[in-house]
């Protein structure tokens, strides 16, 4: 029973962290999007690659 409970706790903790990660990633993406509009095309391609990496 203890193992089961600790697994549940681990799962809920990971899910919670993932949820927080999504929120912050979304906020960061909005900031990046605003910054990207001021950058030259080469910079945009580099940031798109970074965003793709972050989303995986």
Automatic annotation (TrEMBL):
It comes from Gallibacterium anatis. This is Uncharacterized protein.
């Amino acid at each position: 029973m203890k193992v089961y409970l600790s697994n549940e706790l681990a799962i809920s903790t990971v899910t919670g962290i993932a949820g927080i990660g999504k929120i912050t990633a979304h906020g960061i993406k909005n900031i990046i999007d605003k910054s990207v509009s001021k950058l030259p095309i080469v910079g945009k391609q580099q940031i798109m690659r970074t965003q793709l990496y972050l989303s995986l």
